[in-house]
Amino acid sequence: MKTDDTRKTRSKRGAGRLYRRDGSGKEYSADSKVGDFWLQYSVNGKRVRVRLLDEKGLPITKRTEAEAARTRILEPLLAKDKADQLRFVKARLEAAEEAEALANEEANPPLTLADAWEAYLSSPDRPDSGQETLRSYGVHWLKFKSWLREKNPAPEYLREITPQMAREYATELTRTKVSPNTYNKRMNFLKLFCKVLTELARFKVNPFEGIGHKKLRPNARRELTLAELKAILESATGELQTLFYLGTFTGLRLGDCCTLKWGEVDLDRGLISRVPNKTRSRGAKPVKIGIPPALFKKLAETPPNKRKGFVLPEHAALYTFTNEEGKSIRKSVITNAIQAHFRKLGINTHKEGTGTQVKPNPNIPGEYIEESTGKRAVVEVGFHSLRHTFVSIHAERGTARGVVQAVVGHGSPAMLQHYEHIGEEAAKQAALAMPSNIVDADFEVLPEPLPPWAVELAEELNSKNWKHIKIELLKRGEPKQKGKVQ
Predict the structure, then answer these.
(1) Are the CB atoms for 141 and 113 separated by under 8 Å?
(2) Mean of the pLDDT values across residues 401-406?
(3) Containing H/E element for 274?
(4) Over 60: is that where the pLDDT of 307 sits?
(5) Residues 449, 451, 453, CA angle at the centre, nearest 5°?
(6) What's the rounded mean pLDDT across residues 327-355?
């Protein structure tokens, strides 16, 4: 290639040739002021030309920097033996890998804490959680991020969360005496969160992987007595009364009762068909619940032309209301009204010795006053107590386990309490009917199955023999007379 100077800049043997080159490819001597520095050297007889770049990847234009770059490149080749050469090559490779990793991170930085939540929401790898679950996850993340901000220095990137930090947060939750249930929920979420974002965050290990669970000590809601239940149902008014009826006679959770729609209620068939909120996101099938007479009578109070939308429109509006941040902020209005109604009837909603205790008003018979214990409240009675009572009554009645289980789920504390250890005495009580002294209505949920002989007759039924089969059904359905054997 032609140059503007036929004189070559000679260097000592093995040091290669340092020269300059402009954008058109024209070469100049190393002493020239034109062009960027290049280096020419030979490896095993093969000529190599490289453009010299600084640590930022920019062309070198200063002689001193060019000499340093030449030394860095040729030093391994000038080593005395192969061992030295290998050490140099290894060091160069490691340095190159670090430089490449640094360049990649500058071009594509890892996930920051500020962007982590949105990244989780948009990730195709996260579970298809419902809105309520996502809102809970959001709260867990905000609390953890707030705790991280107190660290010195506070981490900027998600991958800066270490297993040590995870253990420290677990220790903090234990120190502040959060319940085992809350502890497990937060740890499970954070483990899931980091797993889903492993690639974006560039985690080498999931910092929460080694965090264990706490043993749950469930504080199950106590069942209501029949006297308490009757007082609750009879003294409530308006939508609140209908809400209590739904909870008592269906066993549904508060959210499902508040958001039940008329389209899910079939009064003609005496059935409620509802996919519970808790399992809706998992594509669960509707749960079918029989409508007992007391609930039928209450629901039938709504005129047919008004049976549209929500069964409890006021409660549905409160339960589903969210603010601009998507947080449900009016559910407490419902729970407060429920608890207030219980306390008004003299029913203690807090466990004895905790929270506030209800006592008879010594000055006004029939009224109650509340006294604070000064201790943290442990809720013992609430809307969920209706669900426990529902299970209890059906267990005593002998209702098939699967029927009740379909409504309240397999792992419900009430199911475990009443159905896991059914003994001989409970089996003997299977035929007993539900109490009929609650608002003068039976708790009939599902009709008794037809006897086999009736099923056989029904299968033979047609337009020609229906009169004969009707007579036979009526005949066999008559109660047996004492002392007479059929």
Answers:
(1) no
(2) 76
(3) strand 271-274
(4) yes
(5) 145
(6) 93
Radius of gyration of the chain (CA): 39
Helix, strand or coil, per DSSP, at residue 429:
helix
CA dihedral 200, 205, 211, 212 (to 10 degrees): 110
DSSP assigned state of 304? G
pLDDT tier at 411 (50, 70, 90 boundaries)? Answer: low
Q: How many helices (H) and strands (E) does the chain have?
A: 20, 9
Distance separating alpha carbons of residues 381 and 450, to the nearest angstrom: 39
H or E stretch covering 384: helix 383-397
Tell me which residue of 15, 75, 18 sits closest to 51, measured CA to CA.
Answer: 18
Query: Which DSSP symbol is given to 350?
Result: B
Confidence category of residue 336, pLDDT binned at 50, 70, 90: very high
- Here the contacts of 430-438 (C-beta below 8 Å, separation 24 or greater) are 430/397, 430/398, 431/398, 432/396, 432/397, 432/398, 433/397, 434/393, 434/394, 434/397, 435/226, 435/393, 437/226, 437/230, 438/226, 438/229, 438/230, 438/233, 438/248, 438/294
The tens digit of pLDDT for each residue in 78-116 reads 765 667 667 766 776 776 677 666 666 666 788 999 999
Q: Which two tokens stand for residue 313?
A: 């429109």
Closest CA to 335 of 247, 235, 276, 217: 247
For 122-169, the pLDDT digits (tens) are: 999 999 888 878 989 999 999 999 999 988 788 999 999 999 999 999
Peptide bond into 276 cis (omega under 30): no
CA distance 468 to 466: 5
- Taking the C-alpha atoms of residue 327 and residue 139, their distance in angstroms, rounded to an integer, is 9
- Mean pLDDT along residues 461-473: 74
**Spatial distance between the Cα atoms of 456 and 342, rounded to a whole number of angstroms:** 50
